[in-house]
Specification:
With 144 residues, the protein is α/β, with parallel strands linked by helices. It contains seven helices and four strands; from the N terminus they run βαβαβααααβα. Pfam families: DUF488-N3a.
Length: 144
């Protein structure tokens, strides 16, 4: 059996028909606190694959600080990302959390069975960094 494809996108792209994901792909949300309208854009949500609450909180606080210093939204987002060491902290979470490891194993099994998946969250990665691209890379590395 051929392995399924793995893609990622953001919720607004789905809502505005701009998402470049296979039509047959299951849209898997990867956010801790989805809004009601987020649920309408995805087939399921795996909150355990969202960044841990303490990392999100420190990131958001730093992002607000950067905005107060005059940075634009994207600039503040990306500067805060670097300052809190977001990528390393999120990768450590994916490696160390049993909940995240179980969810990753489940997604990997589904991909191995031929199901195509699209990871979905809120951020447009053309301008901002996002955990879902790290998660996609993590899944691809785990199966390489």
């Amino acid at each position: 059996m051929e392995r399924g494809t793995l893609a990622d996108t953001y919720v607004a792209a789905i809502q505005h028909d701009l998402a470049e994901v296979p039509a047959e792909a299951t849209r898997v949300g990867v956010v801790r606190q989805p809004t009601s309208w987020f649920h309408t854009a995805v087939d399921e949500n795996r909150p355990e694959l969202g960044p841990p609450a303490d990392l999100l909180e420190s990131f958001r606080q730093r992002e607000e600080d950067m905005k107060m210093q005059g940075l634009c939204e994207e600039g503040a987002h990306n500067a805060a990302w670097d300052q809190v060491g977001f990528e390393d902290a999120y990768r450590t979470y994916l490696e160390d959390s049993s909940e995240a490891q179980d969810a990753i194993a489940t997604l990997d099994e589904r991909l191995a069975a031929g199901e195509s998946l699209a990871l979905v969250c809120f951020e447009n990665t053309e301008k901002k960094r996002c955990h879902r691209t790290i998660l996609r890379e993590f899944l691809e590395e785990a199966t390489a």
